[in-house]
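Sequence in, structure out. Go.
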Amino acid sequence: MEDREIGLYTFFSPGTAVITGIGHVAFRVTRLDRALDFYCGKLGFREAFRLDREGEPSPWIVYIQVAPGHFIELFPGAERVGPQPGRDAGYNHFCLLVDDLAVTLEELGRRGLAITGGPRQGLDLNYQYWITDPDGNRIELMQIMPDSPHTAADARW
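Output:
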């Protein structure tokens, strides 16, 4: 595949991309203990490390590791939960990939996460289920299906 220009944009062929992935998403949290229980205790991620910054309460950032090279940053000390997604620009959600959504939901339920309803198939043909963290941040759990546009895009990569 060759690089191609369309209008003002140049689309680079796979292998020439300078961005290699998403390193982390970051959230301000009202209570670090609740956030750690949710991300580590319920979702099963692990606390990777903490950073302190002079002049800021300790810890300044807590890094939660999802997989090698993939992190969630938690910034403790938020005073209140902000507005949730609607029609305004801004954060909407992030998505976590799973191999088997039904098995994942069973396990999350055993860990104490309230599971109501079941997976739904989206317009992209993938199965999805939505949860929120203790501060109301929306998280999509997604099982990529073989006939989805995601799978086709990955095959072209």
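Check: The longest strand covers residues 61-67. The chain has three helices and ten strands.
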